[in-house]
Design goal:
The chain is α/β, with parallel strands linked by helices. It is built from 15 helices and 14 strands. The structure holds pyridoxal-5'-phosphate. Pyridoxal-5'-phosphate (PLP) binds next to helix 4.
Length: 429
């Protein structure tokens, strides 16, 4: 494949945008080479500036659950744009999407919309701290909750790819209030709670970790966290920015039948426009301004175009009774197909999968937390990535990312992907 235009555009971009990108992982630093510049996308495919077509497994890092340029979303945004793109006043559509979200997700009464997943998580911990009157939070190594200061500590993909788990600019003062636990290690959490009794406001977790590859919670792990939180008056925050409206209508709360106290959303909830949200039961949400003392605001929050896209997306998900079954089946098909090829050629691997999230690790040990995810062979991954890219398959340019399966993928696309994996494996075997 030729990447002439992408190369030229990247060169130009680097002159005026740091690293040529507006979010670091796009720069291909983890895998080397020149990032491809997207020009358009439709359904399962993304097209670059050189006219190459790719079967897309990134899907804007999650939002495109139903494929690119999904008809109802595009129509809704177009129609809304005609009547004004922002007012800074309340609008009816905000209530409409809030009612729908509250009806789909278990255990929430009220939801507040923001502009990104980062904002959602940042606001959720402020709310938890205000509500409990405590300062510290527990997060898990390798979990990503956006780029706000409190979370940039062992924060998975971006940081992991660049080998900088902590960022300069995050103060010691902030860092000391973020306690780190190992994913899937309940004893570790217990020890932290005991050592910091009555000081912990919240435990925040990706109920299925998706930013160090896809790592499912061990059986009973989320339930045990729930019990620990209950007995220590700690709020349990599920960061469902990736899993929300993806693993089930009600997200991971529904899939695992565990209730969180605060839930964060992003990605799918915006249908591809910049949207985040956080939600909880009344008792907690009423603590938020203007009802309560915890301040949180946003000039463009609840933006009509963003709400129109999100609403069209949630409606489509809510009205499709077979969606999650179809996504599951497609992902399982891909899993089995890739596993068969890797087995055939005796390649060491682990594949993790939950619903439409899947990750391939080039290491045969179980991948259940950040340490085991980091053990994967990064060199193999790099050649794998470039081989797939050259064959028209676009997976995330980092060994620490999940692949996202969309409803737009056909079984032909999946077969083409499996064939590409086979070609790669033949080349290295
Ligand atoms: C993507 C992501 C975020 C951050 O969302 P942005 O919209 O990129 O700010 C937070 N948490 C999780 C679990 C995510 O996957």
């Amino acid at each position: 494949m030729l990447y002439q235009r992408s190369s030229a555009l990247f060169k130009e971009a680097q002159e005026v945008i740091p690293g040529g990108v507006n979010s670091p992982v796009r720069a291909f630093k983890g895998v080397g080479g020149t990032p491809i510049f997207a020009k358009s996308a439709k359904g399962a495919y993304v097209y670059d500036e050189d006219g190459n077509r790719y079967i897309d497994y990134i899907n804007s890092w999650g939002p495109m659950l139903l494929g690119h340029a999904f008809g109802p979303v595009v129509e809704a945004v177009k129609a809304k744009a005609e009547s004004g793109t922002s007012f800074g006043m309340p609008t009816a559509i905000e209530t409409e999407i809030a009612e729908l979200a509250v009806s789909m997700v278990p255990n929430i009464d009220k939801i507040r919309f923001v502009n990104s997943g980062t904002e959602a998580c940042m606001s959720a911990i402020r709310l938890a701290r205000g509500f409990t009157g405590r300062d510290k939070i527990i997060k898990f190594s390798g979990c990503y909750h956006g780029h706000s200061d409190a979370f940039l500590i062992a924060a998975g993909s971006g940081g992991a790819t660049f080998g900088t788990p902590n960022s300069p600019g995050v103060t010691q003062g902030t860092a000391k209030d973020t306690l780190l636990a190992d994913y899937n290690n309940i004893e570790n959490v217990k020890q932290l709670i005991e050592a910091n009794s009555n000081k912990i406001a919240a435990i925040i977790i990706e109920p299925v970790a998706g930013n160090m590859g896809c790592i499912p919670p061990k059986k009973g792990f989320l339930e045990a966290l729930r019990l620990l939180c209950d007995s220590n008056n700690i709020l349990l925050i599920f960061d469902e920015v990736m899993t929300g409206f993806r693993l089930a209508k009600g997200g991971a709360q529904e899939l695992y039948n565990v209730n969180a106290d605060i839930v964060c959303f992003g990605k799918v909830i915006g249908g591809g426009l910049p949207v985040g949200a956080f939600a909880a039961r009344n008792e907690i949400m009423n603590y938020l301004a203007p009802l309560g003392p915890v301040y949180q605001a946003g000039t463009l929050s609840g933006n009509p175009l963003a709400m129109a896209a999100g609403l069209a997306m949630l409606k489509a998900i809510n009205s499709d009774e077979n969606l999650f079954k179809r996504l599951d089946e497609k992902t399982l098909y891909l899993h089995k197909g890739i596993a068969k090829v890797l087995d055939e050629f005796n390649i060491e691997y682990t594949i993790n999968r939950v619903g439409s999230m899947i990750s391939v690790h080039f290491d045969e040990g179980k991948v259940s937390d950040f340490d085991t995810a980091a053990k994967g062979n990064n060199e193999t991954f790099k050649t794998f990535f470039h081989s797939m890219l050259n064959q028209g398959i676009y997976i995330a340019p980092s060994a620490f990312e999940t692949w996202f399966i969309t409803d737009a993928l056909s079984y032909n696309d999946l077969d083409e992907t499996i064939a590409a994996v086979k070609k790669f494996v033949k080349g290295i075997a």
